[in-house]
């Protein structure tokens, strides 16, 4: 049986092989082809439900990803972006098309409607394509495995600023390798002291202690936003950002209901933006897909037009990976 870790590792390996073959042949690999490779190989251990009509009609359409374990779930709306590297400068075309940012606005709007975190899957090419730019403090010469893992990375859309993310260092600092997204957090988040004073006890504990599973995924995302906020000069805003629970019991809605209203230079409460998608339990459509008893066409009709499908990752718990769920639609 393929584990979640193994499936994502092989997904990255096959994606890199395709990138390398294209680079050697002088061809430009595309975002859609890499997305297909990653999802098809990940499907050996996770649930993948493509919405056929959307997937065929929209090139580069977005995918809903849910990271699920026994404690809860964290949801994202992910859009793919490939890196273009030229003379040491990295670009991702976040402001497509033509600098208007219309595609990004659609991603952010759809994610807000669905209660998901907008994020980018960054396809960085092979290590040779990136000239083996150092990835971390632990970078090794030659074929650094950490650099290779970075070929498929994930970045919160909040941090996808074209004027800032323009080289290897800024890209690596603001993103995480997809296959390491749920690695347990081993250190506390970097938080401005004035903001830390505003944290509710349960949120402070979450940001200060080791997290596993879906909460480790959440930490992987918000830790990078907090690090970026730490480097900004604007004074922290005071007050709380309340999360509306829509009358649901605390056992089903967002894990955190009260968080700081600090906005940084993003113009929104980044705590609310990053943490609202962390739920005590998956939403109804995720539960239906996990059960295998769902109507694909009906589910697709409930989603915004830019959504190409759903991926559900059941994360390992207590060192043991859950059995993959076979998703089958019914008419």
Fraction of residues in H or I helices? 25-40%
- Counted up, domains total 1
Q: Please provide the ordered H/E string of secondary-structure elements.
A: HHEHEEEEHEHEHEHHHEEHEHHE
Radius of gyration: 19 Å
Structural class call reads: alpha+beta
User: What sort of overall outline do the alpha carbons produce when their principal axes are compared?
Assistant: globular
What is the makeup of the main sheet? 8 strands, mixed
Count up the helices: 12
Structure notes:
With 331 residues, this protein is an alpha+beta fold. The protein has one domain. The protein has helices at residues 4-25, 31-42, 52-57, 102-114, 145-149, 168-174, 193-196, 201-208, 213-230, 270-275, 284-291, 296-301, and strands at 47-50, 62-69, 72-82, 84-86, 89-91, 117-123, 152-156, 176-177, 240-242, 258-260, 278-279, 307-314. Strand 4 (84-86) and strand 5 form a beta hairpin. Helix 1 (4-25) runs antiparallel to helix 2. The chain is globular, with a radius of gyration of 19 Å. The two termini are 29 Å apart.
Question: In short, what is this structure?
Answer:
This protein has twelve helices and twelve strands. Helix 1 (4-25) runs antiparallel to helix 2 (31-42). The protein is α+β, with helices and mostly antiparallel strands and 331 residues long.
């Amino acid at each position: 049986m393929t584990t979640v870790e193994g499936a994502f590792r092989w997904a990255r390996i096959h994606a890199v092989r395709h990138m390398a073959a294209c680079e050697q042949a002088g061809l430009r690999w595309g975002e859609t082809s890499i997305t297909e490779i990653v999802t098809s190989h990940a499907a050996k251990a996770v649930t993948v439900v493509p919405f056929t009509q959307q997937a065929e009609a929209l090139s580069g359409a977005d995918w809903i990803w849910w990271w699920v374990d026994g404690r809860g779930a964290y949801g994202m709306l992910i859009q793919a972006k490939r890196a273009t590297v030229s003379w040491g400068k990295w670009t991702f075309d976040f402001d497509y098309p033509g600098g208007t940012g219309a595609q990004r606005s659609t991603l952010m709007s759809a994610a807000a409607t669905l209660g998901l975190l907008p994020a980018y899957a960054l396809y960085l090419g092979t290590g040779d394509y990136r000239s083996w730019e150092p990835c971390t403090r632990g970078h090794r010469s030659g074929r650094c495995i950490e650099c290779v893992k970075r070929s498929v990375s994930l970045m919160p859309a909040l941090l996808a600023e074209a004027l800032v993310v323009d080289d290897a260092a800024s890209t690596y600092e603001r993103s995480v390798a997809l296959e390491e997204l749920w690695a347990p957090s081993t250190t506390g988040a970097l938080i401005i002291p004035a903001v830390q004073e505003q944290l509710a006890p349960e949120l402070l504990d979450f940001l200060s202690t080791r997290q596993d599973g879906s909460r480790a995924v959440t930490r992987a995302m918000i830790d990078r936003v907090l690090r970026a906020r730490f480097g900004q000069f604007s004074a922290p805003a005071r007050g709380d950002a309340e999360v509306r629970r829509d009358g649901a019991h605390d056992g089903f809605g967002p894990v955190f209901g009260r968080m700081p209203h600090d906005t940084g230079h993003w113009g929104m409460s980044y705590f609310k933006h990053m943490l609202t998608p962390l739920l005590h339990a998956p939403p109804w459509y995720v539960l239906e897909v996990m059960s295998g008893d769902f109507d694909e066409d009906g589910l697709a009709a409930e989603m915004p037009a830019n959504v190409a499908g759903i991926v559900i990752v059941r994360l390992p718990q207590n060192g043991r990976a859950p059995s993959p769920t076979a998703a089958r639609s019914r008419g």
